[in-house]
Design a protein that fits this description.
The protein contains 11 helices and 8 strands. By secondary structure, the protein is an alpha+beta fold. A hairpin with a 6-residue loop joins β2 and β3.
């Protein structure tokens, strides 16, 4: 099928595409409304060396601190840091469950550790983030090497306190609704194209022309059942359609006269005799060849205009 066929299939099935798009968008919006809000609060700590007076010692202390910062970043989500937080705040969770809500990151080429906490309550998210940074500072100093005086060689101090966020970070309800709308639209387009491929019925004259099998002689305007176009409405649109088809048949073969015209139904049960056709509404065919009932799958063939007709049903 060419692109124009696909485009016509979409235009013909546009109500289906619109309905599925609206259903998808509505389903996405309804799903987004059922998702709880999540808030994110972030606090930060600064890691530095406590010893060093000359430039060489300060440089060595800086390198030493950067090497340990990655380890302290992972320490922020360990049970040794989170258990004191749970006890202090009276949380009804395990360290493993709380660790899933916490993210610790070390920005590149810095000795800063950012601790982010995601929770359904904005105030609780900020409180947990601040408690984690305090606990991390204590545990980092306890685990760091000591100097000869028994003091820690590293300093881990909070530098940014978390505040309750004013807006949630998730869910993105607009994105979810738009995603549902897009999915519904794609599904509608896919069903429309599938319908055009699977449905092989010929509904319009264009459908016949698209087959490129035989030339189209013409089409007859739909009329009420039982109305004979040429006898009941000789000046109607259907009668004019029949006259155009007659002219097409008359000049279909200029070398020899048309002797027989077969009018067949496209339905197999009708071709096999599933419906009886009336014997009315016959007219002389071009060149006096045959006479046919044009609104039924019955064909009347004759050798000449004066010979008696013999009724035949096309196979």
């Amino acid at each position: 099928m060419d692109p124009q066929h696909y485009w016509r299939a979409l235009l013909k099935s546009w109500p289906l595409v619109v309905v599925l798009a609206l259903v998808g968008g509505g389903a996405g919006y309804a799903y987004a409304q059922t998702q709880p809000d999540s808030f994110r609060a972030t606090s930060s700590v600064f890691v530095s060396a406590t010893e060093g007076s000359d430039p060489n010692e300060l440089l060595q202390g800086s390198s030493y601190t950067q090497n340990l910062v990655q380890s302290y970043t992972r320490l922020a989500t360990s049970s040794v840091v989170l258990e004191p937080v749970i006890q202090q705040m009276g949380l009804d969770v395990t360290p493993t469950q709380l660790a899933r809500q916490i993210t610790a990151e070390n920005p590149l080429n810095t000795v800063i550790i950012d601790v982010a906490v995601v929770d359904g309550d904005a105030q609780r998210a900020a409180d947990v983030a601040n408690a984690v940074t305090i606990s991390l500072s204590r545990q980092a100093r306890a685990l760091s090497p000591e100097n000869t005086a028994g003091n820690s060689t590293l300093s881990v101090a909070p530098i940014a306190e978390a505040t309750p966020p004013t807006s949630p970070i998730s869910p993105n309800r607009r994105l979810i609704a738009l995603s549902g709308l897009a999915i519904g639209t794609v599904l509608g387009i896919a069903l429309a194209l599938l319908r055009s491929v699977v449905d092989t019925r010929l509904r319009t004259a264009r459908d016949v022309e698209d087959l490129h099998l035989v030339p189209l002689l013409g089409s007859v305007t739909r009329r009420n059942r039982g109305v004979l176009a040429l006898s009941d409405e000789p000046q109607g649109a259907a009668a004019d359609d029949f006259r155009r088809i007659r002219a097409q048949l008359q000049f279909a073969d200029v070398d020899r006269a048309t002797r027989t015209i077969a009018v067949s139904s496209v339905a197999a049960d009708e071709r096999e005799g599933g419906r009886r056709s009336p014997s009315t509404s016959r007219w002389p065919s071009p060149s006096g060849a045959s006479r046919c009932s044009w609104w039924t799958p019955t064909c009347v063939a004759a050798d000449s205009p004066s010979s008696p007709p013999s009724r035949t049903r096309s196979a």
